[in-house]
Amino acid sequence: MKTLLLSIDHVRSSLSMKEVIQAVEEGYQSYDAGMVQQPDIVSMEMPANNGETDIKSCYNQLNERISVKVASGFYDNGKSNDLPTMIGTILLFDGKTGAPLCIMDGSLITGIRTGAAGAISAKLLARKDSKTVAVFGGGGQARMQVYALCQVLDIQEVRVYSEYKDELARYKDEVEAQEKVRVVLCDTPEEAMKGADIAISTTPSKKYLVERAWVQPGTHIIAVGADMAGKNEWDPEVFRGAKVVNDSISQCVSRGETRNAILAGVIQESDIYAEIGQLVAGQKPLRENDQEITLFDTTGMAIQDNVTAVKVYQLAKEKGLGQYFEFI
Amino acid sequence: MKTLLLSIDHVRSSLSMKEVIQAVEEGYQSYDAGMVQQPDIVSMEMPANNGETDIKSCYNQLNERISVKVASGFYDNGKSNDLPTMIGTILLFDGKTGAPLCIMDGSLITGIRTGAAGAISAKLLARKDSKTVAVFGGGGQARMQVYALCQVLDIQEVRVYSEYKDELARYKDEVEAQEKVRVVLCDTPEEAMKGADIAISTTPSKKYLVERAWVQPGTHIIAVGADMAGKNEWDPEVFRGAKVVNDSISQCVSRGETRNAILAGVIQESDIYAEIGQLVAGQKPLRENDQEITLFDTTGMAIQDNVTAVKVYQLAKEKGLGQYFEFI
């Protein structure tokens, strides 16, 4: 049998952010409906090489596809070699036969499906008239979140802060070229938060950047960076009284920003309002007034990779992209 | 960068059982020396499709390779399609950079590395003059165990029993063509055990086949079939007083034949004599007399896949086998 192979370029030309947002929404709903088997994340660490490897896998009963993503972060890459820091590979198997259908680069998909998650939360929870976005971090995910958000809201200003100031000029150029927004470079986190309707954090920070006092009533927060124990971007006090939504409660409680708020004693697990899939499915009220602070904590779920990769696979086949290889 | 792709035929022509036995011995030693990070096995089940998928992954600090094996069993394959029941795919990543080095078929490797495990245990624990082997099951693993055993001992007779009698004629033809042994087809498990120096069980049985009374003093038992809760090939009484060796104690206690003996109250975890890696490393006495019953319970470890796949990868590169694909 033939397995389709797709490079990062094939993946890039196979799908748009709009399609990914739709696919991830459907994925969240499948998860909420109990159609998804999603084993715990597998983690291996290579501290001597400043690297880590995670495996996120799931079976989605709705599309009958098993997905396995092997994603690595090796933080010395680019110095002694020309490899990217983040490398990912996604395998799709037929859930009816176990046959390997497709193997594709997964680096781009991780970025784009995470961007999509943020946008879905904003569509559901941000104020409809949101125009100004604070962004923390100036890397790939700081771009993806804005690109995705611009698909669902009429964003006009991006106020970006990064500890690494030298990356911000390029960030501004690229984001302004891609979307009809004005990018304002900010010297402090507090400055970035000024007038923000939505605030997105995408850093690897281990000590929080954003104080509770800087968050205005009515803000929607998208907490992306904290995806393992020890990472922290937000003052835990931000969680007090906020409408807290998780992608997966079990994951966010064990490795997300939500973990920090629980450890700090600000909230308990029972204070988490909902999983995002429940909101997509219309099971609970969304934002209830313009004063509420809403907070979406996302640690990244295998179902996002599953539905995005299946979409890529379908579109690549339609477009005749990629090469085939017969493993068996 | 280029990733090497190897089909089942490339894998087959890349390595011999002898090399795999050596590689797996080295793997067991790395594991024993604490050089291996081996996360828990990930399992997904597709009962509606009579299928299951496991992921076995590890990082071997000795060869600096991360391996991920995705292995499926879909037991209706071959009826409505022409796919094999067991399908596996192995990915090798560079433990220094996370780069995907090689993707290969893993179906054959699972069989061959499991055969190698049995032979390693026999080399260490069976009586040196062992000549007669009882084999339960007539499938692929029932062949592999014999092929591997013939590398390490002077086996002359194979006494095979299978519930599926119609597969035995082909088993006899193939094994006799491959090795200098006489294959005797047996009507009952008791008949297979007559005069056996070594007894190997490779069935998916859920109720034990072999009674304690049929096991002669001095026998070495290789328990392969029971690799998940609910499977059982041996009367738990066989464990009483036996020298019990596991590949991984944590795995065998939770999903191997050893689990059944513990649940039956015949032994406790503390009665397990050693992990196989300790014996390979010479840390404990092996068989101490000709009367002792020794028992090796193997559930299959990711480190076996790792070292075998790395060997395949090296040899395939030397021989110029396979194709390359650039994912990134």
Blueprint of the fold:
Two copies of one chain form a homodimer.
Chain A: E1 3-6, H1 8-12, H2 17-32, E2 36-37, E3 42-46, E4 51-60, E5 65-74, E6 86-94, E7 100-105, H3 107-125, E8 132-136, H4 140-152, E9 157-161, H5 168-178, E10 182-185, H6 189-193, E11 198-201, E12 220-223, E13 243-246, H7 249-255, H8 257-263, E14 274-275, H9 276-280, E15 294-297, H10 302-319, E16 323-325
Parallel strand pairs in A: 1-7, 8-9, 8-11, 9-10, 11-12, 12-15, 13-14, 13-15
Antiparallel strand pairs in A: 1-16, 2-4, 3-4, 4-5, 5-6, 6-7
Helix pairs in contact in A: 2-3, 2-10, 3-4, 3-10, 7-8
Give the DSSP E fraction of chain A (strand runs of 2 or more residues): 15-25%
Instruction: Spell out the helices and strands of chain A N to C.
Output: EHHEEEEEEHEHEHEHEEEHHEHEHE
CATH class of the largest domain in chain A: Alpha Beta
- End-to-end Cα distance of chain A: 6 Å
Determine the mean pLDDT of chain A.
Answer: 97
SS elements, strand count of chain A:
16
Query: By CATH's scheme, which homologous superfamily of the largest domain in chain A applies?
Result: NAD(P)-binding Rossmann-like Domain
Number of alpha- plus pi-helical segments of chain A = 10
SS content category of chain A = alpha/beta
* Largest interface (C-beta under 8 Å): A-B, 52 and 52 residues
Q: Based on the structure, what is the oligomeric state of the protein chains?
A: homodimer
Instruction: Output the radius of gyration of chain A.
Output: 19 Å
Q: So, CATH architecture of the largest domain in chain A?
A: 3-Layer(aba) Sandwich
The parts of chain A where pLDDT drops under 50 for at least 5 residues are none
Q: Percent range for helical residues of chain A?
A: 25-40%
Pfam families (chains A, B): OCD_Mu_crystall
Protein name (chains A, B): Ornithine cyclodeaminase family protein
